Amino acid sequence: MLRPIFLTIPFIFVVALVGLAPISIASESKFSSADPLTGSRVNLETDWVGSVKVSPSLPILVLAGHADSQGLDGAGTAGEAVDLKGEEPMDLSISDELYWNLKLRDKLVSIGRNKGLNISSYDPPLRQIYDENDPRTNWSVGALHSKNGGYAFEIHFDSYGNYGFGSGLIPAISTKLNTLDESLAQHFGRYPRLFRGGLGAPKRRIRILEIGKLGGRLEEKLRDESTRDETLTQLALKIVKAIEDGLGKV
Ligand SMILES: [Zn+2]
Question: What spacing in Å lies between the alpha carbon of 51 and ligand 1's midpoint?
């Protein structure tokens, strides 16, 4: 007769745990907040805030990450389609990441200029420059742009799966962070200031914008010719909105 009473107590605990489970799962997924377009966001501990006000006409320079380091250590990710699914690279002479970095850079500048942003791009004359301090590299040109009061950032796609961290802004190390940094972090995600001990670009006041992992639905939509242009447009518009918010234009 006592047995059912003893059983009742664990039963209440089980009900309570089962009842709580969906709540904790829901709050977890909200925390990591995967974007339907760009996928998972970076989820690393950091506490920087960009608060320095910038001019609405701030000159913005967009660089395609890895545009001068093909065949070298930092060539960029091959992407999930090539690495795991056995698909052909988009262009045999460059990494798939660079292929998409270039496409998105050009789409962003085109849409951004139409929307009145003071935005331009730079493309190194060679895809392989051994000396990172050569004046023709992304880093040299971006560093000079920042030194002269502009805002320079590189577009990147992150590694797929567990190799990558997800979308987000890696801010500059050696300069005060501003409202454009803050807005890009709010729209895409926020990487720690000293991510990987401080990368080459952020050390030169060049920001890195990780768009998303080059895999899954995002990569499929980019590779599918029927959705490619629209996907690039949506990505560019997401960046433009973040820039407009950061410049106080809207
Ligand atoms: Zn990259």
Answer: 27
Place 3 in a pLDDT band, splitting at 50, 70 and 90: very low
CA of 21 to the centre of ligand 1 (A): 37
For 26-79, the pLDDT digits (tens) are 333 344 568 999 999 999 999 999 999 999 999 999 999 999 999 888 899 999
In DSSP notation, 163-206 reads G---BEEE--SSS--BHHHHHHHHHH-B--TTGGG--HHHHTTE
Tell me the torsion sign for CA atoms 10, 11, 17, 20: negative
Q: How many Å lie between the centroid of ligand 1 and the Cα of residue 77?
A: 7
Distance from the CA of 19 to the center of ligand 1, in angstroms? 42
| pLDDT tens, position by position, 112-152 | 999 999 999 999 999 999 999 999 999 999 999 999 999 99
What architecture is domain 60-247?
3-Layer(aba) Sandwich (3.40)
| 246 vs 185: CA distance, rounded Å | 10
Q: Which has the closest alpha carbon to 242: 191, 176, 168, 175?
A: 168
Going by C-alpha positions, the residue among 131, 106, 99, 133 that lies closest to residue 120 is: 106
* Alpha carbon of 222 to ligand 1 centroid (Å): 16
167 Cα to the center of ligand 1, angstroms:
11
What is the pLDDT at residue 6? Answer: 44
Q: Which of 168, 126, 176 is nearest to 151 (CA)?
A: 176
